Amino acid sequence: MSVSKDQNKIQEILTRGVEQVYPKSEMLGARLKEGKKLRLYVGIDPTGKDLHIGHALQLRKLKQFQDLGHEVIMLIGSFTGMIGDPTDKSAARQKLTRQQVLENAATYKKQASRILSFSGKNPAKIMFNHKWLGKLTFEEIVDLASNFTVQQMLERDMFDRRLKEGKPIYLHEFFYPLMQGYDSVAMDVDLEVGGSDQTFNMLAGRTLMKAVNNKEKMVMTLKLITNDEGKKMSKSEGGFVALNDAPKEMYGKIMAMDDSVIIPYFELATDVSMSEIAGKKIQMEQGVNPRDIKADLAFAVVRLFHDEKSAQVAREHFATVFQKHETPEEMNEVNVSAPEPILDVLVRSRLVMSKNEARRMIEQGGVKLDGAVVENIDLTVEGTPEGKVLQKGKRHFVKLVK
Predict the structure, then answer these.
(1) 186 and 49 in a common domain
(2) 340 strand-pairing partners
């Protein structure tokens, strides 16, 4: 596949969602306009089984390069994932085994195929970094480490905070940027794309590429979606939207987000034009209800990762359940043919993950049966032919039948 030099698409690549390009944007722009095929990658550590919107932002940027004809790689951190990226962490991550990280990554290709094309004339590649990092000798690691100083590592914000708070910094955590940097060397890439919180690690790759391959590797950092407190939208900080989420769940999660993320989300997670997004920003500044703009956002995201029909159904479902306070027409059914403790029914219906969570939800008034708040954790329930509605929180319903 030949490389396209479409000026509008190149401009979109260089600007939309981009925070900074190292060493400079003009250099990458010139390379793209030459029409020479670039090799670039996004790295994903398999610390969980779900890819999420944060991953999608990076994979969507990769897709823009793929559409122009460049060689793109989705790198699975099958080795670095065992170490755990210390970025923005106040304590060391729990180390994982090789088996755990490979199990977590088992469906990544299927999930990422919502964005990248893994077949056709210019298929995206998948690589695993244990294939080279696991083979490095101690002598080679020492040689790579000689390109960095302890002072450089300690400049990282989270390490500085830990020192001031008297919290430990483990030696293996210093190896993470070294290992990520070596990924660039092993794959001999021209460019790495990642969130701006990964700048330190990605620039470590620039250092090693110059030292080992005598090559200028470029780095593109992308904006992060953060709330009013500056916290990243993630599983640990809240606002986690998985690519595997069902349309109604995805729509509801976006509607529950802070109003402050609406415009950044439009730019980073949708295909809505920048001119239209600017118009929505003006509407919000002029007093239009943010909920209405957020509904447009939720629709655009669900349409992108599912389809138009699913987005429409999700929008109607949300309006029925949350704006009109009605129960949904379609619910999963759970057979409860004999009296059964409500704690067991909540777990069996998968409304909660454990009896402890079930108790907590009831104690907090978060469980309803046919619209009435359940107050007794020892309550027994039984289904009916027409079905009783068991509800957890605002968005989760099942019908108890017999």
Answers:
(1) yes
(2) 381
